[in-house]
Amino acid sequence: MEYFWKENKRFVLAVGGGLAFLLLYQSLVLGKIRGAAELADRTRRNKKAEIEKKMAQGVPTDETLSAARRDRDNNRKVLAGMAPDTAFTLPERFLKPKRDVKAYYDNLKIELTNQLNEKATAGRVAFPQNLGLPEDVTEENASEMLLRLAVVERLVGLCIDAECEKIESVNALHGADQDERTSKKSKFLTKYSVFVRFHGKAESVFKVIHGAQKKGSYLAVTQFEMSRPDATKDVFEASLGAALLKVDDKGTMDAP
Fold first, then answer.
1. Residue ranges per domain, the chain?
2. Opening angle at CA 181, ends 176 and 184, nearest 5
3. Which of 29, 48, 144, 166 is 20 to 30 A (C-alpha) from 119?
4. Residue of 247, 227, 248 lying closest to 239 (CA atoms)
5. d(C-alpha 12, C-alpha 176), whole Å
6. Backbone dihedral angles phi then psi of residue 238, each to the nearest 5 degrees
7. What is the value of pTM for the model shown?
8. What span, in angstroms and rounded, lies between the C-alpha atoms of 11 and 198?
């Protein structure tokens, strides 16, 4: 053994030193690397679990928020591009006056009702008792009420021109209680809906539908129902909701 030690001392020491270095390297260097890797893996798993939990609870992530904002910006461009095709050229008499708003509105409402009634009588179209317009306006809602008055004139006029048999009812405030009413905060797209029930032949009904979407005085059809109470007669009952669309390029657009 002593002879073996003398002859192989250097080799044994070299091998032992190498083994010692390897053990130290594994414990100090590789151990730290493995520890860092395990920590990173745990962090990744925790983050993933946290994101999944938030998504399950309906909380948007940064990625979904970014995607939503991109969609919003794209929709803004599309809507702005459509504005010329969906424009409603407002006649001057439906613009808000600088003074005496209430008196102006009352006079215009009476004047318009009489004009449409006379036109309906001449065209042998049964006319409703009223046009579903509010009795009073304020400085704050005057612009909106005048816009709705313009939509009423357009829809009722279409029914008369299409030779419908009867205009059963008109609701000029349709949708006003569903966040359509003008707010102080500017919006990118606002709609002002009016609802009308009328009777007529199939040809008359479709003339009203297509006429509402005429370029330059465009109304978006938001609701439509049609039925035929008597199968032996070519008379249909129709319900139509149509909206004037107002685009404000500088207005806000709902987004996260």
1. 2-59, 85-247
2. 170
3. 144
4. 227
5. 95
6. -125, 145
7. 0.65
8. 108
User: Can you tell me whether residue 121 is helix, strand or coil?
Assistant: helix
In tens, the pLDDT along 14-42 reads 444 444 444 444 454 445 545 555 666 77
Tens digit of each residue's pLDDT (9 = 90 or more) over 102-115: 889 999 999 999 99
Q: Are 88 and 244 in contact (CB under 8 A)?
A: yes
179-219 tens-digit pLDDT: 444 444 556 678 899 999 999 999 999 999 999 988 878 88
Residue holding tokens 């439906």? 94
Beta strands in 101-202 (DSSP E): 166-171, 189-200
Q: Is 139 in contact with 98 (CB distance < 8 Å)?
A: no
Query: What are the Cα distances from residue 13, in Å, to 7, 8, 112, 206?
Result: 12, 9, 112, 103
Helix intervals (H) in 131-229 = 142-161, 202-212
Domain spanning 85-247, CATH architecture: 2-Layer Sandwich (3.30)
Q: What is the DSSP letter of 139?
A: T
Per-residue buried b or exposed e for 155-192, using 16+ beta carbons within 10 Å of the residue's own CB: bbbbbbebebbbbbebbbbbbbeeebebeeeebbbbeb
Distance CA 6, CA 99 (A): 118
- Take residue 168 and report the two structure tokens written for it: 């059963």
Residues in the chain: 256
